[in-house]
Amino acid sequence: MKYADVNGKLADYRRQISDIREKMRETLATVEPEKVNDYAFATFDGSVRLSELFGDHEDLIVIHNMGAACSYCTLWADGYNGIHQHVVSRAGFVVTSPDRPGVQKKFAESRGWKFPIVSHEGSSFAADMGYVSHSGGWLPGVSVFRRDGEAITRVSDTGFSPGDDFCSLWHFFDMLPGGVGDWPRVAKKPSCCSSH
Protein backbone atom coordinates (compact mmCIF):
# COMPACT_ATOMS: atom_id res chain seq x y z
CA MET A 1 0.00 0.00 0.00
CA LYS A 2 1.27 3.49 -0.79
CA TYR A 3 2.48 5.71 2.06
CA ALA A 4 -0.31 8.28 1.57
CA ASP A 5 -2.99 5.55 1.50
CA VAL A 6 -1.67 3.97 4.71
CA ASN A 7 -1.50 7.37 6.42
CA GLY A 8 -5.10 8.08 5.45
CA LYS A 9 -6.24 4.71 6.79
CA LEU A 10 -4.33 5.20 10.06
CA ALA A 11 -5.79 8.72 10.44
CA ASP A 12 -9.25 7.20 10.09
CA TYR A 13 -8.48 4.61 12.78
CA ARG A 14 -7.26 7.41 15.10
CA ARG A 15 -10.54 9.31 14.55
CA GLN A 16 -12.43 6.13 15.45
CA ILE A 17 -10.36 5.77 18.62
CA SER A 18 -11.11 9.40 19.50
CA ASP A 19 -14.84 8.76 18.98
CA ILE A 20 -14.67 5.67 21.22
CA ARG A 21 -12.89 7.70 23.94
CA GLU A 22 -15.74 10.23 23.84
CA LYS A 23 -18.27 7.40 24.22
CA MET A 24 -16.25 6.08 27.18
CA ARG A 25 -16.36 9.51 28.87
CA GLU A 26 -20.11 9.72 28.28
CA THR A 27 -20.59 6.22 29.75
CA LEU A 28 -18.42 7.05 32.76
CA ALA A 29 -20.62 10.07 33.50
CA THR A 30 -23.52 7.66 34.14
CA VAL A 31 -21.71 5.45 36.69
CA GLU A 32 -23.15 4.89 40.15
CA PRO A 33 -20.11 5.40 42.42
CA GLU A 34 -18.95 2.52 44.63
CA LYS A 35 -18.56 3.40 48.32
CA VAL A 36 -15.18 2.41 49.78
CA ASN A 37 -13.58 2.37 53.22
CA ASP A 38 -11.12 4.97 54.44
CA TYR A 39 -8.16 2.57 54.16
CA ALA A 40 -4.93 3.07 56.11
CA PHE A 41 -1.58 2.94 54.29
CA ALA A 42 2.00 2.95 55.51
CA THR A 43 4.51 5.59 54.43
CA PHE A 44 8.12 6.22 55.35
CA ASP A 45 6.86 8.95 57.71
CA GLY A 46 4.04 6.92 59.31
CA SER A 47 0.44 5.96 58.62
CA VAL A 48 -1.91 7.87 56.30
CA ARG A 49 -5.57 7.35 55.43
CA LEU A 50 -7.10 7.29 51.96
CA SER A 51 -9.08 10.44 52.81
CA GLU A 52 -5.84 12.32 53.50
CA LEU A 53 -4.38 11.51 50.07
CA PHE A 54 -6.86 13.78 48.27
CA GLY A 55 -5.10 16.92 49.51
CA ASP A 56 -7.19 19.94 48.45
CA HIS A 57 -8.92 18.01 45.64
CA GLU A 58 -12.23 16.17 45.55
CA ASP A 59 -10.79 13.60 43.11
CA LEU A 60 -7.90 11.19 43.70
CA ILE A 61 -6.01 8.98 41.23
CA VAL A 62 -4.50 5.87 42.84
CA ILE A 63 -2.10 3.70 40.87
CA HIS A 64 -2.03 0.00 41.73
CA ASN A 65 1.69 -0.68 41.24
CA MET A 66 3.19 -4.14 41.65
CA GLY A 67 6.35 -2.77 43.24
CA ALA A 68 10.06 -2.56 42.53
CA ALA A 69 10.22 -6.16 41.26
CA CYS A 70 8.08 -5.33 38.20
CA SER A 71 10.06 -3.67 35.41
CA TYR A 72 6.87 -2.75 33.51
CA CYS A 73 5.50 -0.92 36.56
CA THR A 74 8.85 0.86 36.82
CA LEU A 75 8.69 1.73 33.10
CA TRP A 76 5.22 3.21 33.60
CA ALA A 77 6.34 5.25 36.64
CA ASP A 78 9.44 6.55 34.84
CA GLY A 79 7.21 7.82 32.02
CA TYR A 80 4.62 9.30 34.35
CA ASN A 81 7.17 11.17 36.49
CA GLY A 82 7.48 14.07 34.02
CA ILE A 83 3.75 14.86 33.96
CA HIS A 84 3.13 14.56 37.71
CA GLN A 85 3.10 18.33 38.28
CA HIS A 86 0.35 18.71 35.69
CA VAL A 87 -1.80 15.85 37.05
CA VAL A 88 -1.78 17.18 40.63
CA SER A 89 -3.02 20.57 39.45
CA ARG A 90 -6.31 18.75 38.69
CA ALA A 91 -6.52 15.82 41.16
CA GLY A 92 -4.78 14.16 44.06
CA PHE A 93 -2.37 11.40 43.04
CA VAL A 94 -0.57 8.53 44.75
CA VAL A 95 1.08 5.25 43.82
CA THR A 96 0.42 2.27 46.07
CA SER A 97 2.40 -0.97 46.09
CA PRO A 98 2.96 -3.97 48.36
CA ASP A 99 6.59 -2.96 49.02
CA ARG A 100 7.51 -1.74 52.48
CA PRO A 101 7.94 2.04 52.83
CA GLY A 102 11.72 1.81 53.22
CA VAL A 103 12.01 -0.18 49.98
CA GLN A 104 9.68 2.28 48.23
CA LYS A 105 11.66 5.30 49.37
CA LYS A 106 15.03 3.88 48.33
CA PHE A 107 13.71 2.74 44.94
CA ALA A 108 11.90 6.03 44.23
CA GLU A 109 15.06 7.99 45.05
CA SER A 110 17.12 5.77 42.73
CA ARG A 111 14.67 6.55 39.87
CA GLY A 112 14.23 10.25 40.64
CA TRP A 113 10.46 9.89 41.14
CA LYS A 114 8.63 12.98 42.41
CA PHE A 115 5.23 11.51 43.21
CA PRO A 116 4.00 10.14 46.57
CA ILE A 117 4.06 6.40 47.25
CA VAL A 118 2.23 4.48 49.97
CA SER A 119 2.33 0.83 50.96
CA HIS A 120 -0.81 -1.31 51.12
CA GLU A 121 1.15 -4.17 52.70
CA GLY A 122 -1.00 -5.93 55.29
CA SER A 123 -4.26 -4.29 54.15
CA SER A 124 -7.10 -5.57 51.98
CA PHE A 125 -7.02 -2.48 49.73
CA ALA A 126 -5.60 -4.11 46.56
CA ALA A 127 -7.84 -7.17 46.91
CA ASP A 128 -10.95 -5.10 47.65
CA MET A 129 -10.28 -2.96 44.57
CA GLY A 130 -9.81 -6.07 42.37
CA TYR A 131 -6.05 -5.80 41.90
CA VAL A 132 -5.07 -9.22 43.21
CA SER A 133 -5.19 -12.13 40.77
CA HIS A 134 -6.97 -15.45 41.38
CA SER A 135 -3.58 -16.96 42.21
CA GLY A 136 -2.84 -14.23 44.79
CA GLY A 137 -0.43 -12.13 42.72
CA TRP A 138 -0.63 -8.35 42.37
CA LEU A 139 -2.21 -6.71 39.33
CA PRO A 140 -1.38 -3.25 37.95
CA GLY A 141 -3.92 -0.54 37.21
CA VAL A 142 -5.57 2.68 38.31
CA SER A 143 -8.58 3.57 40.44
CA VAL A 144 -10.17 7.01 40.67
CA PHE A 145 -11.89 8.09 43.87
CA ARG A 146 -14.11 11.03 44.77
CA ARG A 147 -14.52 12.55 48.22
CA ASP A 148 -17.80 14.16 49.24
CA GLY A 149 -17.62 15.23 52.86
CA GLU A 150 -16.79 12.08 54.84
CA ALA A 151 -17.84 9.72 52.04
CA ILE A 152 -15.30 8.25 49.62
CA THR A 153 -16.44 6.51 46.44
CA ARG A 154 -14.65 4.86 43.55
CA VAL A 155 -15.89 6.26 40.24
CA SER A 156 -13.70 4.37 37.76
CA ASP A 157 -10.82 1.93 37.36
CA THR A 158 -8.96 -0.04 34.73
CA GLY A 159 -6.07 -2.46 34.57
CA PHE A 160 -2.66 -1.78 33.05
CA SER A 161 -0.94 -4.13 30.60
CA PRO A 162 1.75 -3.90 27.89
CA GLY A 163 0.38 -1.83 25.00
CA ASP A 164 -2.22 0.06 27.06
CA ASP A 165 -3.05 3.76 26.88
CA PHE A 166 -1.23 4.68 30.09
CA CYS A 167 2.39 4.22 28.99
CA SER A 168 3.44 6.41 26.08
CA LEU A 169 6.32 4.13 25.08
CA TRP A 170 3.91 1.64 23.46
CA HIS A 171 2.48 4.31 21.16
CA PHE A 172 5.92 5.36 19.92
CA PHE A 173 6.77 1.70 19.28
CA ASP A 174 3.49 1.36 17.34
CA MET A 175 4.91 3.88 14.83
CA LEU A 176 7.99 1.75 14.13
CA PRO A 177 8.19 -0.94 11.46
CA GLY A 178 7.89 -4.17 13.43
CA GLY A 179 6.32 -2.42 16.45
CA VAL A 180 7.91 -3.45 19.74
CA GLY A 181 10.30 -5.80 17.92
CA ASP A 182 12.74 -7.52 20.29
CA TRP A 183 12.53 -4.77 22.92
CA PRO A 184 10.82 -6.95 25.56
CA ARG A 185 13.66 -9.49 25.29
CA VAL A 186 16.30 -6.75 25.44
CA ALA A 187 14.46 -5.16 28.39
CA LYS A 188 14.27 -8.56 30.16
CA LYS A 189 10.49 -8.83 29.95
CA PRO A 190 9.13 -9.98 33.29
CA SER A 191 6.25 -12.34 33.83
CA CYS A 192 4.72 -9.95 36.36
CA CYS A 193 2.36 -7.95 34.18
CA SER A 194 -0.60 -9.75 32.75
CA SER A 195 -3.70 -7.95 31.53
CA HIS A 196 -6.35 -7.15 34.18
TrEMBL record:
<dbReference type="Pfam" id="PF05988">
    <property type="entry name" value="DUF899"/>
</dbReference>
<keyword id="KW-0175">Coiled coil</keyword>
<protein>
    <recommendedName>
        <fullName>DUF899 domain-containing protein</fullName>
    </recommendedName>
</protein>
<feature type="coiled-coil region">
    <location>
        <begin position="3"/>
        <end position="30"/>
    </location>
</feature>
<dbReference type="InterPro" id="IPR010296">
    <property type="entry name" value="DUF899_thioredox"/>
</dbReference>
<dbReference type="InterPro" id="IPR036249">
    <property type="entry name" value="Thioredoxin-like_sf"/>
</dbReference>
